[in-house]
Amino acid sequence: MESKVLKSAEVLFDLAYAEDIGDGDITTNNLVPPGENKTAILVAKEEGVVAGLPVAEMVFRKFDPDLVWNEKKPDGSKVVPGDVIVEFTGNYRALLTGERKALNFLQRLSGIATYANLCMQELEGLDVEILDTRKTLPGYRHLDKYAVRMGGASNHRFGLYDMVMIKDNHIQVAGGIKAAVAAIRKKIPKSIKIEVETANLEQVQEAIDAKVDIIMLDNMSSAMMIEAVALINNRAKIEASGNMTLKRIRKVASTGVDYISIGALTHSVKALDISQRIID
Question: Is the pTM of this model over 0.90?
């Protein structure tokens, strides 16, 4: 896992600690002897793809630096109900106090990876990339996008700083696509890609004439996408976006687009069910 992902997780851990533990785990600290060690396992309770194990390990090590961590199913692995994902041994208090925080990270990220993987399976045999969006949980951008990659999909821009995305409100302010692209080209390095959001074929033609790098087909019907792809004719990369569901994406991919961006990868994630069990 990249250092920037773990750095984000460290910040989030501090927030999680403050909201969950406060002055201390009064149940565990009053029932469990301080020096006792135990072994635990994390077990998959449904089928999916694992993501976030380094974050879960980081959480437990915050409470027990001497933790022994033995992964059975590393990040990116597919699991089925009953699979042991990791076995670990450490201070009993640490295992109990860290449990919910570790699982909150692991279940969310595994849920994202699982859905990303399902989308990729729908596109088997087609040369189309699935992209995420900026619709991530605030503060979780690096973690959420890491999980997308663990599921086999790809990342779109990370933020407002690394790529130009001219959307409908920008177009309105600038007085059209041509004017917006011309204005922004005067102020940015040539290495930065420019993408324009289009809602109809007239806007697609404007984007072609402006020689942008990527043209987004936003909330178009599949029939209109086919027309747009033919109109663009390989003069720009093409991204389809808007109301992309698991059932729809293969039909959209067959229109000839290069990318399909799916906000639901991260904004509507269903956590993967994973439980912790003490075994010794």
Answer: yes
Instruction: Give residue 2's pLDDT.
Output: 81
Active site residue 122: no
Q: From the candidates 64, 122, 218, 258, which is the catalytic residue?
A: 218
Q: Is 135 a catalytic residue?
A: yes
pLDDT tops 90 at residue 79 = yes
Contact criterion met (CB below 8 Å) for 149 and 155:
yes
**Shared domain check, 140 and 97:** no
Active site residue 185: no
Which residue of the set 57, 71, 197, 239 is catalytic? 197
Percent of the chain with pLDDT over 90: 98
Catalytic residue among 167, 211, 235, 251: 167
Region 64-83 average pLDDT = 98
Catalytic residue among 61, 73, 78, 100: 100
Question: Is the same domain home to 163 and 236?
Answer: yes
Q: Do 112 and 128 share a domain, yes or no?
A: no
Based on the residue annotation, tell me whether 218 is a catalytic residue of this protein. yes
In the chain, where do the E strands start and end?
A: 37-44, 48-49, 68-71, 78-79, 84-91, 129-131, 164-166, 194-198, 214-218, 237-241, 259-261, 274-278
Range of the domain at 136: 124-267
Active site annotation includes 270: no
Residues 122-138: pLDDT tens digits?
Answer: 999 999 999 999 999 99
**Residue of 78, 135, 157, 185 with catalytic role:** 135
- Predicted pLDDT at 160: 96
**What is the distance between the alpha carbons of residues 224 and 201, in angstroms, rounded to a whole number?**
8
The domain that holds 26 is classified in CATH as: 3.90.1170.20
